[in-house]
Amino acid sequence: MNFNNLMEHVFAGRWIAGTTVEEAMKSAKRFNNKGIKAIINYLGEDISNQTAVDNTMDVYLRLIRFIKNYGASADISVKPTQIGLSISEQEAMANYSKLVKEVRTSSIFLWLDMEGEPTVDSTIKMYLSEVQNGGIGICMQAYLKRTESDIQRIAKVGGIIRLVKGAYSSSKSKSFTSREEVTRNYSKLMQVAYEQYTEFTIATHDIEMVKKSLELNKKYKRKVTYAMLKGIRNKLLVQLEKENKVSVYVPFGEQWISYSYRRLKEAGHLKLVLKSLFERQGV
Ligand SMILES: Cc1cc2nc3c(=O)[nH]c(=O)nc-3n(C[C@H](O)[C@H](O)[C@H](O)COP(=O)(O)OP(=O)(O)OC[C@H]3O[C@@H](n4cnc5c(N)ncnc54)[C@H](O)[C@@H]3O)c2cc1C
Questions:
Q1: How many domains does the structure of the chain reveal?
Q2: Rg of the chain in Å (alpha carbons)
Q3: Which of 21, 74, 123, 210 has the most CB within a 10 Å radius?
Q4: How far are the Cα atoms of 18, 143, 257 from residue 178, in angstroms, in the given order?
Q5: Burial annotation 134-149 (CB, 10 A radius, 16+ → b, else e)
């Protein structure tokens, strides 16, 4: 086994479901058996080749059929730059509309992942073009200074958000750059979400943020879901499931390197990585 195969093997078992739709289904079903809903993402981003975009669309359409046929409890999460945004906004909008139509006929919830700052305007535009009939959500990133006003705007049209800290970086003028500032803003945006939304997802592994949200649940009667990435703090998800709705983000596909690199960077140091890779997580 060469280094690449070894890394794939290690990550495939922990952070990624595998490379095929069938493996994603099996992973989703394992989580479902613990009362945890899956949010399935086909790995890939920044695709500027039309054939590759078309292939990605085919995988998502197949995934929708599989979720329905397997009777899995699963949402789908799509990155705008994997369905055409790196070619043109028009291409991405057309593909997004196609997916929205398909998920609606199958009663599957569709999320739009949020990527780097230059893609935010187009991603929100895509989302708003379909928001009126429901069944779709959009990710919002606390590291961006603009996000508070984006969240307020999306609340006004009855949208659904998934609040994350953000896996990208941007300039100091547009973003919070220290972990402390991002966390402070996450806390502030969470408060805004409780005030302005009836339904949203808290997507973080930050225990302090989860605790704060559990406190806010006592004051506001909201439909809150807690979501974490496959392989990170999944024991906590199992605990949260006893009294809350919970989801796990399950990526699959061949393009696992950039996703795994982001997770490695976030883990910060070797001890955390080893802990997340080898700890028994209960799922
Ligand atoms: C369901 C879900 C969907 C997401 N969707 C998007 C998206 O569309 N766009 C986007 O930009 N980002 C997305 N993210 C990623 C997110 O933005 C963060 O990059 C990631 O969740 C880490 O931030 P944190 O909130 O866990 O806080 P952090 O402050 O980074 O971490 C809090 C604690 O969690 C633990 N932890 C965090 N990461 C790791 C790790 N890799 N290994 C081991 N322990 C770890 C550590 O103990 C850490 O101290 C998503 C995250 C989740 C959970």
A1: 1
A2: 18
A3: 74
A4: 33, 9, 25
A5: ebbbbbbbbbbbbbee
In the block, residue with structure tokens 């009667």: 221
Q: Establish if 283 belongs to a structural domain.
A: no
Q: What is the pLDDT of residues 37-88, one digit of tens each?
A: 999 999 999 999 999 999 999 999 999 999 999 999 999 999 999 999 999 9
The best mutation among 204, 228, 275 to test binding of ligand 1, ranked by most ligand atoms within 8 Å of the C-beta, falls on 204
Note whether residue 231 is domain-resident. yes
pTM for this predicted structure: 0.93
What is the predicted pLDDT for the residue at 7?
A: 64
DSSP letters for 25-59 = HHHHHHHHTTT-EEEEEE-------HHHHHHHHHH
Beta-strand pair 37-42/74-78:
parallel
Residues at CB less than 6 angstroms from ligand 1:
39, 113-114, 139, 141, 162, 164-168, 179, 203-206, 227-229, 232, 249, 263, 266-267, 272, 276
Q: Which atom of ligand 1 is nearest to the CA of 227?
A: 1
Give the residue among 6, 15, 40, 18 at the shortest CA–CA distance from 233.
15
Give the per-residue pLDDT at 192: 98
Predicted confidence (pLDDT) per residue in 78-133, tens digit: 999 999 999 999 999 999 999 999 999 999 999 999 999 999 999 999 999 999 99
Q: Rounded CA gap, 263 and 232, in Å?
A: 9
| Containing structural domain, residue 33 | 3-278
Q: Which CATH number goes with the domain that contains 110?
A: 3.20.20.220
Which atom of ligand 1 is closest in space to residue 276's alpha carbon?
43
Q: Whose CA is nearest to atom 30 of ligand 1?
A: 266
